Structures are given as C-alpha cells and as structure tokens.
Amino acid sequence: MDFSFNDEQEALRSTVRKFLVDTSPESEVRRLMATAEGYSPDVWRQLAGQLGLLGLIVPEQYGGSGFSYLELIVVFEEMGRSLLCAPFFSTVAMATTLLLALDDDAASQDLLPRIADGTCVVTVALAEQAGSWDPADCAMTAAPGGDGGWTLSGEKFYVVDGHIAGVVLVVARTAAGISVLAVESGAPAYTATLLSTMDKTRKLARLTFDGTPARLVGEEGKAAPAVAKMLDLAAIALAAEQVGGAQRVLEIAVSYAKIREQFGRPIGSFQAIKHKCANMLLEIEAAKSAAYYAGWAAAEDDAELPVHASVAKAYCSEAYVHAAAENIQIHGGIGFTWEHPAHLYFKRAKSSELLLGAPGYHLERLLQGIGI
Amino acid sequence: MDFTLDADAESLRLRLRAFLADSNPGKAPKDPDARREWLQAWRHLLAERGFAGPAWPKAWGGMELGLAEQVAYHEEMTRANVPPVHGGLRIIGPTILRFGTREQQERYLPPMVTGDEEWCLGYSEPGAGSDLPSLRTRAVRDGDEYVVNGQKVWTSHSWTSDMMAALVRTGTEAARQHGITYLLIDMTTPGINVRPLKDMAGDVRFSEVFFDDVRVPAVNVVGAENEGWRVARTALGYERSTANTSTDMRYRRILDELAALTVDRGRSHDPVIRQELARLEISMRLLHLNNLRILSAVLRGEDPGPESSVTRLMHSLFEQKLHEFAVDMLGSNALLDGRDPLAAQRGRWAWGFLRTRGSTIGAGTAEVQRNLIAERVLGLPRDPAMPAPADEGLAS
C-alpha cells in the first residue's frame, strides 16, 4: 500500500513550484487581476511549450503527453499556492476533461492539439442566471438549423474565462436531451461579456446567444454522463487547488505569528493563536487526504468517483475558506488592507467554494451517492 | 499510489477469518466478574492459537507481524467485533520490552500476553492533569524497597488490575519531569486503597488509587531512578498507527448503524439532518484516509508527516460530533435512558453522548493536543509563562 506521490510526481511539483515562484509572484497576480484578459500570454505559452502542462492529460494521439489525473492535481495544488492567474482551470479541468469524456474523435482532433500547444483557450458554459451547477437545471435549448448544424439561443452565466475563450463548449438541451455544442468566439450573434466579480484572479463571463451557429460535440441528447464526469474531475482539480492555497495561507499566518509582537511577546505564543493554527493544520491535513485520494480515484476511474469528488469539493472548500479567514484574523488590521495579500487568498477561497456547487450541494450529492 | 496490501497480509487475513468464523466469543457478559472471565478466556484462546500480540516479539509469545499484516489483523478483528488488543500489550508491554531488566521481562511479559495479569496506568493525580510533570505521589528509597505515598486518579480499570505501571516522584518537585521514576506496583500490596469513581454516564470505568506507606521492591523500577519520564514516552511506537485501523473500522461500523437508524426513524428526509449526516460521512472517510497516509509513510520506513499529529484530535472530535448528531436526530427519544423500554437501541446513543464528553479530556485534553501541534509541528513559540518543556506529552 502506498498513499504518496512517486518521485516523478514530486519532481513535477518542484518544477512547477519553481516556475510559479518566478512567473506568478504577488506583484504579477495584482497586475493581471487588473487587466481585462486576466492572464499573461507569455506565461501561457511557457505552460504549453516549456512545461507541457496544457497537454498533460491529453492523450499522445491528440498532441499531449497522456499523464494521469494524479499528475494534474499536483499541478493544480501548486497553482492554488501561487494564485496563478491563467485560464488553466477552464481549459484543462473543464474543457479537456469534457472533450475526453464525450469521446468525439473529430472534435478531439480539432480542439485537443490546439489546447495542448496553447493556441486556443477553451471553456465550458453550464450555469445559467440562477447559478446552479447541476446539469438537471440546464434550461438553454439548441435547435437544428442551417447546413445540418445547430443554433443556440439564450444566456449562460459564471462562465470561467468565457470572455477570452476561443471556443466555448455549451451545455444545452435538444429534443433528445442534454447535449454539448461548440461555439467559436467569432460566431455571429454571440457576445461574451466580462462580469465584475469579487475574486479578480479568476474571471467569469456572461455569454449571450441569439440563433448562434454551433456544432454538436458527441452524440445528441447523450451528453449527460460526460458532463457529470467533467464536473467530478473539475471539482477534484479545484479541491487540489484549494489545498495548495490553504497550505500557503497557513504558512503565511504561522510566520507572521512568530514575528509579530504584542504585550512584549510573539502573538504565536498565545494559546488563542496556537489553537487557531492547530485547527487550520488539522483541516488542511484532512483536505490533503480528500483531494489526493480523489485524484487517485480519478486516475483509476473508480466507480465511486462522484462520491470522492463531492467529499473533496465540500471539505477542501470549507477548509480553505476557514484558513483564509483565520489568516486575516491572525494578521489583525494589516490583514484587512488591500495592500496585504490575505484578501487575495480569501477571495479566491470563497469564489472556488461557490464554483461548481457550494458545500451544501456536494453534501447532499454525497449522501445520495451512498444511497441515503 | 496503490491501496492494496501485500500477499502476506492477505494470507494472514484468510487465516484469521477461518479462526474467527468458529471461535468468535460473541457479546461480552454484563456482569463485571463474568466479563473478566470471558475476556481472559478469549485472550487465552488467542495466545493458544498464535493470534495474540500482533506487534509483539515472537520470543515473548507474540506474532511479530510486519506492518501491512498488522493492518490486516486489526481490520479482521474489528470486522468480527471481538475485543481489541488490550492497553497492557499496546503501552506497558513495549516499555518493559525496551527498558525493563531480563528479570522484569520474564516475570511480567508472559502473563501479559495470555491476559492472566491485567495492568493499569498510574499517571494522573488530583493536582497533575494536563501538567503531568508536576505529579506528587512520592516514592522514598528505604533499603531495597521504595515507600510510596500519594494518590492517583482517573485510573482506568484499576480495581480489576493486578499490576500498575506508575509514575512516581523520586526527585524534587522543582525537578519536574527529571525527578520522576517509572515503577511497577503490585495492586495487592498492603496500603493500596482503590475507590471507584462513577463517571457522568453512570459507569464505573476509572478510580482513585490511594497509597499509604506502600512498600514496593526497588527491583520494580523500569529504567533508572528519575528517568521515568523518558521511559514512559519513548516506548510509544508506530504500532499505534496500525492500531488506529481498528479504531477507524469500529467508527465505520457505528456510523453505518447510525445512518441506518436515521433512515429507520424516518429522519433521512430532513434536509438539515441530511447535511449533518453527510458531514459525518466525510469526517469518517477522512479519518480513514489520514490513517492510510500515516501507514503508507511507516510502511516506507519514513516518519509520518503532520497528518499523524492531528489524528487523536480528529478522532475525539469526531466521536463527540457523531453522538451529538445521534441525539439531535432522535429528538425527545434521546431523553430516555437505557432502562426505558422505549429508548431507541437501548439508549446507546444517549449513553455515548454522555460518555464522549470525556473524549476531548482523557489522555491529554484537546487544548493540550492543539498546543503540541502548534509548537511541535508548526514551530510556534512557547508561552514564556510556562515551565521548561517536557519534550513530549504522554498519551495513553
């Protein structure tokens, strides 16, 4: 029995961490937050070329390197640590996993090589105005039209990186049921608008379709299992990202508590601060167990994958929000300022907690998953 | 990553299953005397059939299993719901093995394996709880004996025990942990008075033990005089991580029973109840996974990481939450105690609700655990008002 990352996976972690320390320092995160695009095309090219991370889980036949999901969660953990601003989550954890689950060779031939080489940002549009991430609540419809293709009408909300995506995979209903349709960013009667949001490190967009031409990916009406699989895999990636962020804020809080003095002694020598930090550690260690195991289950395509995904998403979300909030509290006044990075982590923690379903949704899904 | 055990562990599992299929002792008798006989018969049978002491050396009648085999052992024994490996074997035995003299080993180890002699731990005192190094039960050397005077408290099972492993003051009180000796005391020695204490759940599981000029042979010191603190703390080995397997599996079974009860009582449609039950399910799974991470490190021959320092705290908090949920789910029915015929499952949940208030107190309070985590794992500075560090807390 071995519940650890192997030497190659640890080497990948070191490489990614070093790269992100250099390319995603706090100053760069703050600079990109303030831009409309929200990412650095130069860093994106390096993620694709030099590091090969965009094609990490893309099979070799489609221009990737065919690694497992375990390698990917190592990468996400590091990206969460550094608050990397890039459309990596949308393109890799959502669009790539959806394309692979849909198993449409033509669409894969078209899109996966462009994802792997960094020439196309792709995202998935699922949630609508009400903000539900449950595919059952998807109401938008696609109609047959023009040249044997399809047209889409309606709106999608909270689309991760939707404003910069070259291609959007839209989840919509046809007469036959849940389907996935691809829309090119230059398509007529299509607009993508950046939403003004709390967490500027991960951008969200509102997409409007009005008879927009789209092409079907996968079989009409049979996409529900693929969408569900994508949601599980994306939730696991997000959980790993949350673990990385939570671990980082604990480190920041602990180092501050060691040097900040009040009443003539370091505040970390007071039990009130110690107990906060101990509770954070307890939750972070449990969160690691949840995310790593879910990553293994994803790599093995375990039959209980949806349950492991919901366990990880529900727990890691709350552990990160709690750690990020305690980090602010331990810092006191300075932690409440715009200039201190504590709020960057707190906002990322909250936005990722709500993305793909808040903890309450995943708790319910878990219970149904175990037959209660 | 890989979650399978090796072939040796799987073959042991099959042997144990065969043994347990026809030798399971069933439910323990209620009467304390009958219960003790029943327990001894079971321990004798284990020793006879070569299934006693999974982590224990073969030379002393144990199985000397590898860690993966120990995991399988605890899984199967817990699955069969037979009594767990007793505290003597887990805590006191390893101490005598490591620090005891040959004479002490020959005298005490064989009856410990067979269960013929029961042991209790004499650590806490009325004035020495979380601050154990301040203990005051004094042992004064007189020829080739020590004369012991003082009082221990919260001593589990002391009135059924034959022997006590005690920490006693031989140096000055100012010397704190450097003036403490580890002493083995025969519980039938004149001058020992055991007064059972009833706990808040109405059970008698621990006692006060009074020592009035109790004469103990000096050869009963384990390690050297005034070295008792080091002796007591060093012997806690990694077998604890494999023993946690049995704790996990026991909780797994209890939670499954509680979930079934929730459905039976028609409470599983309540959305608030559902959320709480899901949280317990997550905690249960993560306790288990944390333990697998620890085992995995130990199997590789490495020291486990921070995950091992939070295990006890996680367990005790979980145990409390589980029972808090149970009584809230049962509602007014939880107000009936086990004697009322209408009490759900003979009042076990209300009883557990009361009993688990002790989970965050015994063997190191949750607050002490958090201090240890903050200082040892996270490296936060010590409280300058506290006495010099005792290196490590003692857990039993």
Describe it for me?
The complex is a heterodimer of chains A (372) and B (396). By secondary structure, chain A is an alpha+beta fold. Chain A has 11 helices and 9 strands. In chain A, strands 1, 2, 3, 4, 5, 6 and 7 form a 7-stranded mixed sheet that branches. The longest helix of chain A has 36 residues. The model of chain A has no long low-confidence stretch (mean pLDDT 97). The longest helix of chain B has 29 residues. Chain B contains 11 helices and 8 strands. Chain B folds into 3 domains: 79 residues, no CATH class; 109 residues, Butyryl-CoA Dehydrogenase, subunit A, domain 2 (Beta Barrel), CATH 2.40.110.10; 125 residues, Butyryl-CoA Dehydrogenase, subunit A, domain 3 (Up-down Bundle), CATH 1.20.140. In chain B, a hairpin with a 2-residue loop joins strand 2 and strand 3. The mean pLDDT of chain B is 91. At the A-B interface, helix 7, strand 9, helix 8, helix 9 and helix 11 of A face helix 7, helix 8 and helix 11 of B.
What labels would you give this structure?
heterodimer, A: 372 residues, alpha+beta, Butyryl-Coa Dehydrogenase, subunit A, domain 1, Butyryl-CoA Dehydrogenase, subunit A, domain 2, Butyryl-CoA Dehydrogenase, subunit A, domain 3, 3 domains, seven-stranded mixed beta sheet, globular, B: 396 residues, 11 helices, 8 strands
